[in-house]
Amino acid sequence: MTERTGAGGEKARLPRYFKLFIAMGLVLLAIPSAASAQASRTWVSGVGDDANPCSRTAPCKTFAGAISKTATTGEINCLDPGGFGAVTITKAITINCKNTEAGVLAGGTGVNGIIINASTTSNVILRGLDIFGFSNAASGIKVFAAKRVKVYDTDISGFQHGFDFQPSTERTKGLIRNSVIEDSRGNAVQVAPTATGNARVTIKNSTIAGNNCGVIASSVGAPGSASANTDCGTAGGVGGNAQVNVFGSEIVDNEERGGPNGSAGVFTAGSGAIARIGDNEITGNIFGIRSISPAPGGIFSFGNNYIFGNTTDGTPTGTITPTRR
Known about the structure:
mainly beta, Pectate Lyase C-like, eleven-stranded parallel β-sheet, nine-stranded parallel β-sheet, 2 helices
């Protein structure tokens, strides 16, 4: 037992474990609450609540609510169908909802569906999303910075630009596979780095349909500027290198919606802009393919594309002979 002196000078005895309780309390205060810890896997649900911890049994309501509770390189999954809202991604993460309807609705001038502004070492993966824009929404997916951005099994429609790839960082890469990008007022896929460096996007087994322009690589000017050529509303940093590879895809019915000289299925602008195309169907566009890129830029074909039924089919800048190994 320990003793303490009272007001009247008498000594009162306290249990020895009283000090132990105090010490334990101080230790507990120093340890973060388990509820505030970030999980490697979180969940969202159409009937969830962002006040929840985003666990399997207590899911969140939105991607924005879940991402703050998901650890870097972690994954957000969807339990059931729902509209999970726009989100800004600033770290390496995966959003995987391929087995249910995962809606991202964005409306209003300048509003984007998903913004990616992560570090140059961050890999971002998006799978199984339905991203829909209305009321002059800006971009379905807008990329400012990352190491790699991969998009699988995703539908993007109704935006100014569908996949707007304008990284300000070196050697940023993108991949679009098994996806649909349609009804963009501007460009379905726009590869236009805003700083000197390299930006490359590969598109495989996807459909680019009913947009103003289809797949764009640009290394000149800002949207609407004389150097950018407003045919396809291209954008990008002067001197940047923009590359796009398109394989096994449909690029169809991308027709003029106000451009002065016509829209295009595949379009390049600037000497640093290169498009490589192979095994695609390119039809129903104003221009099938069109390049205003001086050398070494341009559109280069593997010689196995079906380019037909456009107002002007167009001619590749050059051909590529693949080497089988």
